TrEMBL record:
Alphabetic keyword roster: Cytoplasm, GTP-binding, Magnesium, Metal-binding, Molybdenum cofactor biosynthesis, Nucleotide-binding, Nucleotidyltransferase, Transferase
Organism of provenance: Secundilactobacillus angelensis
Coiled coil: none
Keyword GTP-binding part of the UniProt annotation: yes
Residue stretches making up the MobA-like NTP transferase domain: 3-161
GO molecular function: nucleotidyltransferase activity
rRNA-binding listed as a keyword: no
Protein name: Molybdenum cofactor guanylyltransferase
Length: 189
């Protein structure tokens, strides 16, 4: 199983890079936190970066074994989470088992990721939301390419319709807080 950290978002509402952000009281940034969690479950972790943070993240993980920073690939660059997932799938010639974790879920536990890893073709669901950037499925770069050629960049459609992933329900929505403003994290925990 390959871990994929989605660290290439624009972070427009957040007003600073979520991947490089460090929560108060946290000793590492969100990208490192995600890599550390996935490294416990995966043989290799790919960090999908954007043009602005790729050099910083590459330096950060330069000495980390089994961690590689990748960038979006044309013609599907800058198209959201599917761009990063496509770039990850392009690293392999065969169907690959991917465990996806976006950097904007700093409180997701190892137990949550482990439960997703134990089920094929699934994504996380809480009582109030579906979390498509917390998912586990096997795919190929060709399957992603064919879907992206339809000009549909909605991760939800890819996860539910193409991959036919099922939701795995989690009761504790606190673990799935997705921060969109830096101030929100001060009040949440």
């Amino acid at each position: 199983m390959i871990g994929v950290v989605l660290a290439g978002g624009e972070s427009r509402r957040f007003k600073q890079d979520k991947a490089l952000y460090r929560l108060p009281g946290q000793c590492v940034n969100n990208a490192q936190l995600a890599v550390d969690k996935l490294s416990l479950l995966c043989d290799r972790v790919l960090v999908s970066a954007n043009a602005k943070n790729v050099s910083t993240l590459t330096r950060q993980f330069a000495h980390s074994q089994n961690v590689e920073v990748i960038s979006d690939l044309p013609p599907f660059d800058k198209r959201g989470p599917l761009s990063g997932i496509y770039a990850a799938a392009c690293q392999f010639n065969t169907p690959t088992d991917l465990l996806i974790l976006a950097v904007d879920y700093p409180y997701v536990s190892i137990e949550v990721l482990s439960r997703l890893a134990d089920h094929d073709n699934c994504y996380a669901r809480t009582p109030d939301a579906d979390h498509y950037t917390l998912a586990h499925f096997s795919t190929t770069s060709q399957i992603l390419h064919d879907f992206l050629m339809l000009d549909d960049y909605r991760l939800r459609h890819f996860i539910t319709e193409v991959q036919q992933c099922d939701p795995i329900s989690f009761a504790n929505a606190e673990l799935f807080i997705n921060f969109n403003t830096p101030e929100a994290d001060f009040h949440a925990h």
